[in-house]
Every structure is written in C-alpha cells, then in structure tokens.
Amino acid sequence: MQHETAEIVRAPIDVAALAAGLRRGEDGAVVVFEGIVRNGSGGCPTLYLEYEGYEAMALEQMRAIAGEARARWPIDRVAIVHRLGRLEIGETSIAIVVTSAHRAPAFDACRHAIDRVKKSVAIWKKEYFADGAVWVEGEVMQK
Amino acid sequence: MRVRVLFFGRVKEIVGRAEETADVEDGADLGSLFRSYARRFPQLAEMERSTVLARNQKIASHSEFLADGDEVAFLPPVSGGMKHRAARNRRNRAGAD
Questions:
Q1: In this predicted model, what pLDDT tens digit does every residue of A36-87 receive, in sequence order?
Q2: CATH tag, B2-78
Q3: If you placed Cys at B76, which of A72, A85, A94, B9 could pair as Cys (CB 3.0 to 4.6 Å)?
Q4: In CATH, what number is assigned to the domain containing residue A122?
C-alpha cells in the first residue's frame, strides 16, 4: 500500500478493508470519512443517484489532493476512493481514510481532502426523483 | 487540425453525446472552440461562465491555443458544498438523455 492512494470504482467500497489495509504499527489514529447517498435534500424523496466522471482527470486530481494533504499535515497515509454509476440511498459514494501518529492532523487532513474533492474533482452527480431528475451543480469547478 | 472533445454532466445532455472529434483552424484557442459549440447549442452559451475547460486533462483558460490531437473537455459545475437550490430550480424530465 502506497502513502497516497486514489481510486475510482464501480462496485461498493469496502471501507473497513480499505482502513485495515492502511494502518501500521506507528499509527495512533485512523480517520475515516464516508460520503453516503442521502434521501432528499429538500422535501422531495430521492430515488437514487448516478455519478459520472472524467476518470483520467479525476484520478489525477484525487492523487494531487492526497499529496497536498500529506505535504501540509504530519500524517502517514491517505486513500481517496470514489464510486461511479448508480448508487442507492445509504450507499457510500466516497471514502477517505487518513492514518497518522496523532489524531488532530488526521482529522484536519481528512476534512480538507473531502472539501477539495467536492469542489475540484471532475465527477458529477444526477439526482433522480419520482417525477424527474436534476444534475446537482453547486460550484464552478476549481483548480 | 483535429481535436477530441468530451462532454460531461448537463453539457453532455445538451450536446446529446459524450464525445466527438472536431476540426479546428490552425491557431484556434479553447475559447473559439467553446464559442463554436455555443453557436450550435444556445443553452451552452448560457453556461459559458460556469463551464470550465480542460485541455489534456488540465484546467485551461480560454486563451490557451489548441494543438492537433488535443483532448478538450467541457466541465460543468460540480456538486461543491451544500448549494443545491440553483440546480433544483432547473429540474428537467428524467431520461432526457
């Protein structure tokens, strides 16, 4: 397992296995963030989400974010795994795992990584409702 | 010269395809390529400020020149933070693509 891992998958993410594979004897903390598909962001029930990505670019951006986190905080390993395709309510669309000797930098690096992924990685999601569907467009993509 | 153009998200639905090959004049820049699509697809013109362009998988400005064989991508806004309201107002029919 390398210090920085970025992956795009289409099958369910096994977060426990991912975290177990990263931890080492010198680590004192493992912080795991999972982004999961929420039912309804405002009244109308969501049926499911579809994620699509510009995979070559997204992977490169995810690797850069992992590298950025390791450059900025004294952490051990970072893994960012994003799932594409159709996801049902409650399923994990993204997992970020950060290991480190101490918990504070692991929390900070993990928070930073997910915020950066949401704003600057070439992945889009479409939310499906009983009566239609909408691309969730929040912010102009950042570098 | 020829470039490959990729479309994602709402842009893909407006254009009606995921990718195509485009013939461009020597000396053309990304902005002129975008404008040629905006003329074909008026909805795209409205998205000029929110659509980011990438050249060979790197975000690039409209003034960057194209080279033969380039891969250009039109990247609409990503989900970002919690600002879902704007997109919600544009809800369209499911299966439009």
A1: 999 876 678 999 999 999 999 999 999 999 999 999 999 999 999 999 999 9
A2: 3.10.20.30
A3: B9
A4: 3.90.1170.40
